[in-house]
Fold:
Amino acid sequence: MIDHYDWAGGREAMLRSGPDTGPVVVAALPLFEEANRTRAFVVRILRALAERGIAGALPDLPGQSESLVPTDAVRLAHLRDAFATAARHADRTAYALGIRSGALLDVTAMLGGRWHFAPTTGPDLLRELERLRQAGGGDEYGGNPVSPILLGELPAAGITAQSRTIRLESDARPADLKVPGAPLWRRTEPDNDPALAASLADDIAAWVRACES
Structure:
């Protein structure tokens, strides 16, 4: 179902799924163009979690999806505040599901735990944005105008160390678990991977239940 939450900058939509009681997994999409490429995949993960008895929520964050906030008005503090507010809105124990640069956004939220898939740091994101700008020319980053203030925040933007980290087998960086699959965020168009979504949902559900026990 479609829900809403109110943060300091206004009202944003939030997709909800799964049971009305028990813990809820709140997802943070990657920023900018990668959000469009991975949204359907994250929705599939949340639906798979609902089938496993775990509630899920996917909030629109400032500058994402149907948000009325322009991308060039977004600051890192806005994103983190909105995510923290969405997690509180659940009114029960919330767990973060951060995909790629979405892992940067759960830092200030009160959570039962953090689960990150292929997380990227602020400097990683900055390099990716600069690559997009150079490829497209002009001042936009993959079609998105980005505030110089946000760009200036990224070099110091890190990820909470206390998290469960999952990466693809092709990624050489350390992780708690590595899984087979392709990086959907690199595709030129939005795509999905039902097998990978089911595998990740299995891991999230088991992790949440372990945290709850």
Summary: Strands lie at 2-7, 10-17, 24-28, 55-59, 94-99, 113-117, 164-168, 177-179. The chain has a mean pLDDT of 93. Residues 33-51 form the longest helix (19 residues). The radius of gyration is 16 Å.
